[in-house]
């Protein structure tokens, strides 16, 4: 099938992104080299060039997913982006997901729960935002905030957030069972790179809107966040929904890597164009006579 050729790995990928980035039992958050480019032997110029080329492949696959959804296929793909402030979640949406037709994209950013959301179970707002058949869902933050920020700030007692890991695994198992492929991306920047990016937000008028004074307060809690991210990887990277650990100091790499993860996820659906539900020859003749 044509898509198979188009989804083949480029030689600059010495190890496919799905293999190079998949969280392993020995993955240590404190030891992640955030400047590294796992599996990729090329440089920034190669990476930026390839992003465009691979973006076209991603776009074609996404269109096929959308077309199948229109024909009743219930399957969907959901990209979950988790990462500290300045990790580049917004840029990932713009530069990776921005390569595909927005009609088929269902994007949700999760902030501090609204008063209404607070009255419900933490998965309530997640359930409402799940992609329908044929859609490519994108979560900028997710239910994982409920074991990250919530854990670090003791927003609920430990016995409450402690039970959520299992609950999340169960929740995701059902999602996968019901036809949603999850692509869980944990984005990591270094403390130093975060400082540089926050400084840039302060230095540029067009970036002031992205700066939040609380981000500096949160920097003091870096070790606690690392611990929470470690627990998240240890306890919620499952066979049905593994985590991918993406170093994000080099934006060109992280964007290319996530493009590859998405191409892989969509390829696994083995999509094809839905066949016509009408007689093509008859329609050609009708059209010619019209
Ligand atoms: P941003 O992504 O920069 O717009 O920031 C969103 C903020 O909402 C972050 O500080 C998150 O930690 C916070 N947030 C997201 N989900 C939750 C949650 N469930 N409980 C508390 N804070 C949350
Ligand atoms: Mg922010």
From TrEMBL:
Keyword Kinase applies: yes
Alphabetized Pfam families for the sequence: PPK2 (PF03976)
Gene Ontology biological-process entries: polyphosphate metabolic process
Name of the protein: Polyphosphate kinase 2 family protein
PANTHER family the record matches: POLYPHOSPHATE:AMP PHOSPHOTRANSFERASE, POLYPHOSPHATE:AMP PHOSPHOTRANSFERASE-RELATED
Gene Ontology molecular function, alphabetical: polyphosphate kinase activity
Species per Swiss-Prot/TrEMBL record: Rhodococcus xishaensis
Keywords in alphabetical order: Kinase, Transferase
Ranges of residues in domain Polyphosphate kinase-2-related: 47-267
């Amino acid at each position: 099938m044509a898509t198979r050729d188009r989804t083949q790995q480029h030689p600059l990928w010495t190890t496919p992104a799905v293999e190079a980035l998949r969280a392993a039992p020995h993955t240590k958050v404190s030891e992640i080299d955030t400047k590294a480019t796992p599996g990729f032997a090329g440089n920034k110029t190669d990476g930026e060039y390839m992003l465009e080329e691979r973006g076209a492949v991603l776009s074609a696959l996404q269109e096929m997913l959308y077309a199948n959804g229109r024909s009743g296929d219930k399957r969907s793909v959901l990209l979950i982006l988790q990462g500290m402030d300045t990790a580049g979640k917004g840029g990932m949406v713009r530069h990776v997901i921005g390569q595909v037709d927005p009609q088929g994209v269902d994007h949700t950013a999760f902030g501090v729960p609204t008063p209404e959301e607070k009255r419900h179970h933490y998965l309530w707002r997640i359930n409402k935002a799940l992609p329908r058949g044929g859609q490519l869902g994108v979560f900028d933050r997710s239910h994982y905030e409920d074991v990250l920020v919530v854990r670090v700030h003791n927003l609920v007692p430990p016995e409450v957030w402690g039970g959520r890991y299992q609950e999340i695994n169960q929740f995701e198992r059902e999602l996968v069972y019901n036809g949603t492929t999850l692509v869980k991306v944990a984005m990591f920047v270094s403390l130093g790179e975060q400082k540089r990016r926050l400084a840039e937000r302060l230095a540029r008028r067009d970036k002031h809107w992205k700066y939040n004074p609380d981000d500096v307060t949160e920097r003091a809690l870096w070790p606690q966040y690392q611990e929470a991210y470690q627990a998240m990887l240890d306890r919620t990277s499952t066979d049905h929904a593994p985590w991918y650990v993406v170093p994000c100091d080099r934006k060109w790499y992280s964007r290319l890597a996530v493009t590859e993860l998405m191409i892989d996820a969509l390829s696994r659906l083995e999509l094809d164009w839905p066949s016509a539900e009408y007689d093509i020859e008859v329609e050609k003749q009708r059209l010619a006579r019209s």
